Amino acid sequence: MKLSFSAEDEQFREEIASWLRENLGGEFEQIRSRGGPGDEHMYPEERKAWERKLAEGGWTCIGWPQEYGGRGASIEQQVIFHEEYARAGGPGRMGHIGEGLTGPTLIAFGSEEQQQRFLPGILAGTEYWCQGYSEPSAGSDLANVKTKARFDEEKGKWLINGQKVWTSNAHESEHCFVIARTDPDSVGHRGLGFFLIEMDQPGIEVRPIEQLTGTCEFNEVFFDDAECGAGDIVGAPGEGWKVAMGLLGYERGVSTLGQQMLFQNELDEIVQIARDNGAARDPALRQRIADAHIGLRIMRYNSMRTLSGGGNDGGLQKEAMIYKLFWATWHRNLGKLAMDVLGPEAEICEGGPYQLGRLQSMYLFSRADTIYGGTNQIQRNIIAERALGMPREPRG
Amino acid sequence: MEFSFTDEQQMIRDTAEAFLGEVSTSEAVRAAMATESGYDPALWQRICAEMYWPAIHIPEAYGGMGLGYVELVATLEQMGRVLLCSPFYSTVCLGVNALLVAGSEAQKNQYLPQIIEGKTATLAYTGVGGGWDAAAVEGNWRRDGDDFVLDGVWRYVPDGHTADLLIIAAREAGSEGEAGIGLFLVPADTEGVDREWLPTVDQTRKQAQLTLTDVRVPVAQLLESERSDVSGAAWPLLARIIDLATIGVAAEQLGGCQQALDSTVAYTRERVQFNRTIASFQAVKHKAADMMVKVETARSAVYYAACVAQQAMEGGPLGAELSEAASIAKAWCSDAYFFNAGTGLQLHGGVGFTWEYDIQLYFKRAKSSETFLGNSAWHRERIARQLLD
After folding, report:
1. For residue A257, which of A291, A302, A295 has the smallest C-alpha distance?
2. Which 308-327 residues of chain B touch chain A by CB within 8 A?
3. pLDDT (0 to 100) of residue A247
4. What phi and psi, each to the nearest 5 degrees, are found at residue A82?
5. CA within 20 to 30 Å of B58's CA: A64, A163, A336, B204, which one?
């Protein structure tokens, strides 16, 4: 077992760290550490300008293969990038859906024409994407998609009808990828298509969803005969599920250490408050703060196992399968801990009518962590069925 | 970064799994745990002569295998998984570690080869007041000419009634806290040593009480590294030994944690109620999933701590994290093991409450290993002091 990065990787670390030191200032000072989860609605224009700056430096899409415009960065280098980006207070990435989902999907499954049309805008930080998976009746049961795609021979285009939900940055995006039913009589994961749709058209309406934080990061997106070019379906009609799920197998959790650095910042803030306000003398809170520290350290060790390929110790990447359930639950508990450490001050907003402080916002937003991206309950089903081989739930 | 076993480490782990699966069956564990010594001497001889396990992390200069803490931890994990009844933990994690950390060259040359041959050892530091820090050291030492004289009662000593070599932590009469602590090598047959087996709830791990009355120890038996003229400054060494031993317990806990999960999943897949296996109920599946989260996080904590322990012994940079890594591993694995054993017992239903099914043995080991060397709350407080004070 080796726990350190190679000299070459450390040199890469210095390269990105110094670039961030030189460039994440001036006009970008105001968006430092902004735009993360719970704050994604803030500074969209400034953060897009920042994406273009990143692109100029060659720091977008670093994990993509070189022939598609990326750096072909190794897993270790991607981890280092995310870690240094978080350490420097890099703003929440406006381009993360395009970079992390659209691009790799097109590289794996897209036609050459699609790659040439869509990849450059993502690389350059000039075109943004949102994700059209969830629907009102397709949450945990994602295969229960009702949105329909019908090919109109006269127009020579696909017409999309239905509704998507929980679409972040829909109003800030040029494009949306959507899974929709190409076979109207199909059920479940059969009969779906994967579509690349322009957002700026009369057939699409975006309505923000007001969250319990009082802010709006997510949207509902309504499709009413929205048009999609004949060539803008990835894979064949009926292959949408395969395309949508195809990337999950490649997920090696390169952003996890960066995410943990944000968690560390939050925990550090809580520790500082506890020392200042006397909560550090409360034996019960001491236990919970220590437990949070321990959990975060273990999260890091767990990610290091995943990044090392796992499996070798008989684990079959089991540490990767538990990760979502573990971090989401940890972070939700951290939110509660933050409020308990703050004491009576936890109730007092930064300003009216409902301007929340960072930890208050984290406390509320962390309730979403155990819901989105597979609820804790779904995660437990997946672990029990795929890792432990227990019988599957009945599926319609 | 290669935070996974090398091929050689994997082979050591697999060899341990295969051997222990054969020799430490449920029947063997139950036979051994019913004896006062707590182990089968013939099996211990095989462990020493065939597997060379006591030699695993002893440097080759002393006749050992010269492997590291990762290999030791991989082996301990498998031992914990089958509840191996043997003096391995006390001899290696307490005895060998004490000699490696605090022994002089002469002491290492004398005692380590004996241990490789099959002699057993243990460490006694806690007095009747209980506790796991420096204040727990209650027994006294005093100088008398060239000798030291030990007096007092030591309790909760793993395998203290059977070990050939006792490593005793005592304090200078009247000293307090971390001051005045000395470490002494005392052969168990030394005059004035009285040893009493203490029957335990967890029968797979034996404990004893040692009463020392005017036990004379020549200065050459003082265990303070090369500084044999110094006495009373051994706490930092003892703390290091305890941290290393704590990581050993956590490794055993990880193995037990895994086995509690595996046996529970196997049972629920066989047990039929309402015309379906109970493993098909979400109420059961979700508990099993929670148990797996405990296992995998415990594994990450233990393997990381093993790497830290290795560096601590080699003088590597991560060695500075030793006590933090030990506390993280022990706090986490103690809770994880108890959760898994308790949840496993529950999911076994009625048979979980019987003597016949093994889950009860894991449930008992979970608690005894949680208590030994500090429970999770105790270790969290150690972390809290580092963060908050």
Report:
1. A302
2. 318, 327
3. 67
4. -65, -35
5. B204
pLDDT value at position A222? Answer: 98
Nearest Cα to Cα of residue A197 among A168, A166, A230, A165: A230
**What's the CATH number for B123-232?**
2.40.110.10
Kindly report, residue by residue over A238-261, the tens digit of the pLDDT: 999 999 987 665 555 677 888 899
Q: Does B383 touch chain A (CB under 8 A)?
A: yes
> Cβ A289–B277 below 8 Å, yes or no?
no
Touching check for B262 and chain A: CB below 8 Å? no
Contacts (Cβ under 8 Å, ≥6 apart) of B240: B101, B312, B322
Q: What CATH number should be reported for the domain holding residue A194?
A: 2.40.110.10
Q: pLDDT tens digit string along B156-212? A: 999 999 999 999 999 999 999 999 999 999 999 999 999 999 999 999 999 999 999
Its CATH class, for the domain covering B236-388, is: mainly alpha
* Pair A265, A372 in one domain: yes
Q: Give the model confidence (pLDDT) of A259-303 as tens digits.
A: 899 999 999 999 999 999 999 999 999 999 999 999 999 999 998
Determine, yes or no, domain membership for A114.
Answer: no
Residue A264 lies in a domain: yes
Q: Domain tally for chain A?
A: 3
- A290 plus A194 within the same structural domain: no
Please provide residue B153's backbone torsions phi and psi, each rounded to the nearest 5 degrees. -125, 130
pTM for this prediction:
0.94
Active site residue A251: yes
- Report the pLDDT value the prediction gives residue B226, as an integer from 0 to 100: 54
Domain span including residue A318 = 251-387
Instruction: Report pLDDT digits (tens) over A335-351.
Output: 999 999 999 999 999 99
Q: A256 with A368, same domain?
A: yes
In the structure, what pLDDT confidence band is assigned to residue A315 with cuts at 50, 70 and 90? very low
- Same domain? A260 vs A379: yes
The CATH code that applies to domain B7-119 is 1.10.540.10
Interface contact flag, B380 A377, Cβ < 8 Å: no
Rounded to 5°, the CA angle A263-A265-A267 comes to 70
Separation CA B129–CA B131 (nearest Å): 7
Residue labelled with tokens 């899974």? A179
Q: Could you tell me which chain B residue has the CA closest to the CA of A385?
A: B285
Q: Examine residue A99 and state whether it is found in any structural domain, yes or no.
A: no
Instruction: Tell me how far CA of residue A152 lies from CA of A95, A228, A229, A237, B182, in angstroms.
Output: 32, 10, 10, 14, 89
ipTM of the complex: 0.96
